[in-house]
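Hi, here's the filled form for the chain we discussed.

Project: internal
Contact: R.S.
Residues: 318
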Amino acid sequence: MTTTRIEIDHRVRHPEKAGRPDNAIQRKPAWIRVKAPSGPVYAETQALMRSKNLTTVCEEAACPNIGECWSQRHATMMIGGEVCTRACSFCNVATGLPDPLDPGEPRRVAEAVAQMGLRHVVITSVDRDDVVDGGAEHFVETIRAVRAAAPETTIEILTPDFLRKPGSTEKVARARPDVFNHNLETVPRLYPTIRPGARYYQSLRLLDTVKQVDPGIFTKSGLMVGLGETRAEIGQVMDDLRIADVDFLTIGQYLQPTVKHAGVDRFWTPDEFEDLAALARAKGFLQVSATPLTRSSYHADTDFAALREARSKKLIAR
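And the returned structure, exactly as it came back:
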């Protein structure tokens, strides 16, 4: 993909959205309100991220669960810098031309994982369309560094789609993360407005490729609701993911970061999320997390333990 250099004032996170009309931010219903981050462990986690000069998706994507997760020393590392080459209309990560990849970042991530004593770590990244392999080798180096520094820690990665980066998915899969996650985010009808730089079938192909490289790797994907999708469309996406043999599905409520981002079409109720979870389980996913506050890495450690147990039970039943 050809990336056009965007000259920006770096105090502006979303220069590409500046000219868009405002979308009023709706008041959140009671079931998705959260407490403000606080507490000594939260502060310790924050201080560690700063001391290692690390970026977290928890902060960059304005995750509503940051207070709970950081208070339990769970932080999702975001490698490859803090500036993304894509401009998705739902995402709060800054857009522009990133700095060159930092060769010392994998080591610092590994040191933080070891210092925090994590049982399970989630590592994601911005899109790096400016890099020949889309940042695949950077993922590989980070996985290797974490394995060396914290051999008991299980590793979950959440990658970009590696669009027009042949061989990148295979390269990362061969590093054998315990979980390979890539989010479809929304239904294919909404891609042109919500995820314009991505291609639905490329994302499905990525997940299918991981299983072809190594069937033992757990694969995972996530969806947002509240952007105008229908239940029938979500059901079709579930079917597509099962054809790709995806093990784990997460579904959460889209929350609008700013008035320049895509507006919330509606807030799905807790009962509707339970209905989606039941539908996903009926379609054969090993693990499902579907609640208003579900995010890709929310409760990832306990979900991974449940995922392994579900696979073991399935194998015993055969």
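Let me know if anything looks off before we file it.
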